[in-house]
Amino acid sequence: MATRLKETDVVIVGLGAAGGVAALPLAQAGLEVVGLEAGTWLTRKDFAPDELRNNVRGWPQSVQKANQEIPTSRPNASSPTGPRGNVHPMQNGVGGTTLHYWAQSWRLNPWDFKVVSETKRRYGASRIPNASTVEDWPFGYEELEPYYDKIEYEVGVSGQAGNVNGAIDPRGNKFEGPRKRGYPMPPLRWTAYIEKMAAAAKSVGWDPFPGPAAINSRSYQNRSACMYHGFCNRGGCHVDAKNSTMVTTIPRAQATGHFKVVTRAHVTTFEVDANGKLSGVNYLTDGVEYFQPAKVVLLASYTYENVRLLLLSKSKAFPNGLSNNHGQVGRHYFSHHQGAPVTALFPFDLNSWYGLPAQGVAVDNFADDNFDHSDVDFIGGGNLWVYSDRRPIGAAGMGTFGLAPAWGPAWKRFIHENADRTNTAYIQKTTLPYQDNYLDLDPTVKDPLGFPVCRITAEFKENERKIAAFTQDKMERWYREAGAIAVQRGPLGGAMGVATHAYGGTRMGDSADSNVVDRWGFSHEAPNLGVLGGSVMGTSGAHNPTLTVQALAWRTAEHLVKNWKNRQS
Amino acid sequence: MTFISRRDLLKAAVVVPVLRPFQPGDRLESLTQPEAQLLDAVVGRLIPSDALGPGAKEAGVTIYIDRALAGALTSSRQAYAGGLAALDRYARSSRGKAFAELPPTDQDSVLIDVETGAATGFSGSSASFFAMVLNHTHQGMFGDPYYGGNRNFAGWDLVRYPGVRTMVTPTDQKTLENQQLKPNHKSAYDYESFTKADPHHGD
Description:
heterodimer
């Protein structure tokens, strides 16, 4: 029998990027909030600059709850599931994956909110790919702009604005939607190599600019500036300059006296009454069962766990899983097409040993609908991103461009000369949802408690593969212009495996027939359940999702505060 | 001095460190003596010692792998047992001698067969065994010396890595770009501010 705890106003499941943000406006409004987090508190002492531990062995993800629940995946329903990964790319812990993420903090482009209507208007309805279930968002960029601004200042984002109230600043991204003001901090510094790449982009007529990052380029909110030491990628920050929710919104929410953090809380299911209203959350700590009653539940785990927890919570009112009476939980799933990389070899050292993945130069000329698609056979595009990030084991594992074998004396000469002479661009591409890409429960694979893990059935389609080929051409041109002597391209993309940018599954939209949550992030079917995270997003754009996830989380929490009476009944 | 602080630091860890390459008769944590001697010969060909500096043998890669097989890489222990035995059988049947007794050019030709999947007698493809050993050799050669490999920072010097630092100023970056930044030869755990990792598990 579970121990019944004292009822709270709001319980948040998961204190990562989304839940860690939502706690703040709720607690500031005086609501009593309990945050249930599967992981523990980590501190700057835990974030040693150790490539073997962080990047090769995947600490601390490898020792936590999520790692016992890695989803299975298969490209389509007629394929067997592929080999399962060893390390979940996301982590538990207060702050979640914002502890070790790259911290690129982009706004979506206005087009991303209106993919369907803008494509029809500009190119005709026939240009929407077959079998895509993409919809316009229930609101436009303008609706989210104040929340983007809020997060950029509350959490702290460095960057260079490109469009303030319609005034274009050529130092920033001229394609971004209008913003009311610039970033609170200037962009992260550039290295000589990044300067060289920016100059090469300009020389072919493109518009390079520094990318935005939730990393302090100078001291901010009494925390240190970035030390550029080179272990940011999959590592936490040893000086708290990475603006995880652990060092920003969560402690501020705690300081109100209205927010209680419960660590090592392994949430299993939700309790629902006969009317379909949630009464609270069941969780385990060290095998002991607890029931946390709450007036409102905010589900803020990662996409795979959001979907899994809903599907596992069956009741009389929801026989197919919580909020799934329209069969939409798990649908419209997609992961960002981040693959199809391009790698270049230069005849000079790039001096990329120090720095971080969020320190770099972007080109958005081929992203979203920033160029005329009349003469191409796809919609959307990609963001080209060149950054400074290298560590020795990773460097030694580089391909040799056909210039040397993979081992022995000739390889040793090659790696001695070239370990610091390669660069791999990060190209994020528009990815659409399709009818036959979805998440459900695996029929055979279970977690240690005996619950099925999430199963991914999804693959990239023609539109994604065409964008990949198109952006690889652009990237190769950029590298060659900067002096690359060899360029290698990765495959264009097939199966969607377990991803760090996982979208959909509880999509947001006005119609309950094709969406799980309404325009405010609350369930169409269970009105005191809100869902936070990338799982509510219906399009990806060509940029990292976290800032959008956080802006949406703040907006949902603010809506809850303003509609407290209606939402709890 | 760096040497003293590393030793003091490692004394506090679970295992007493071996600050030299593997030598026959050394106490092992996972591999048998014959396995360790064979592995040492293999990694010595993957990254040989030459005019550019020490190779994997001298850098203690065998010690790294032996320790890791007792911890983070424990799931690979059986693959090493089977693969090393198959490698030696293949060397004898195809080249007439145990691997370690072959001249370097013959050792290399055996390894090419293993790398390409042409070697017989392996359970599964010999190529996957080769890829695993090469991957772990990179970990031992280029990972933090805290884990038993990369002795005297041989791996980091080979790739011209200027070292683990906790702060890189704009001036440091410029100095690096001017090829003037000296390697600092420090382990992450020479910085006292960090909680020590388990030297086997890295967690």
